[in-house]
Amino acid sequence: MAVRIPGINIDEYYQQLGPIEPLIRDGHADSLIEASIRYVIAHQGVSTVLVGYSTMEHLEYAARSIEKGPLSRAALDRVAEIQRGFAGEPR
Fold it and tell me: Residue 1: inside a domain, yes or no?
């Protein structure tokens, strides 16, 4: 099944993911948006997330992402691995 993200050209999207692309490719989330939301809700110390959406479709997509629950331990481990790869990169 092809991933559809409201208002986003999927081919351009995958090109822009860079080092996060394996998280999506490996099936941990359908999009960077979903992965981001699910990453945040995986951390019990976070009680509020401020996000902005420009359409009702975007908001509904976010709600569906939350309904999937937090990222799995395997996905969180993959994020940590990706983050370690950023060490020493200029900001």
Answer: no
